[in-house]
Amino acid sequence: MKEYFCDVASQMRECSKCRKILPFASFSIKKGCKGGRSSWCKDCLNLHQQGLRAIKASHPRPPVGYADTTKTCTLCKKVLTFDHFSAKVKRAGKSILQPRCKSCQIEHFRLKKYGVTREQYHQMLQSQSGLCLICAVKMEKPCIDHCHATGRVRGMLCVKCNTGIGMLGDDIKNLESAVEYLKRFA
Q: N or C: which end of the chain has fewer CB within 10 A?
């Protein structure tokens, strides 16, 4: 990774896009970056944003519900309207639609990340009666819970429970500490 000039003392840095050395005020505030500022100057960022807006404006995708323009999903082979496909931006300035419809894209992700097929997903959901394994509430958007160390799928959880155990690092000691903490103040 190429290093760019950044002198915090003199409040100057080099834009990694246009290569100009400019005062810090010419860069947007960005906490994670060197010197607390963006690596691109505001002018370069503005030009980039204008380009993205132009691509989005020129995209052939019609408004939701527009039924005249269709595309065939490469996975399910269904002919669907454009609003069933996600947009994909190419670097050459062209914007196209994903080859798979949104529902096939989700299934492809599940299979790739967790090794769970559509049938297995629905079987897990049905075996749990659509209820979260932790809080036993009907799940609006079921999450596939898995062990981050082994990758093994454990079951289906609601978004809140899956996020909760994930934030506690899937660590039993952390979960027990959280239970003890809640008991102290109950």
A: N
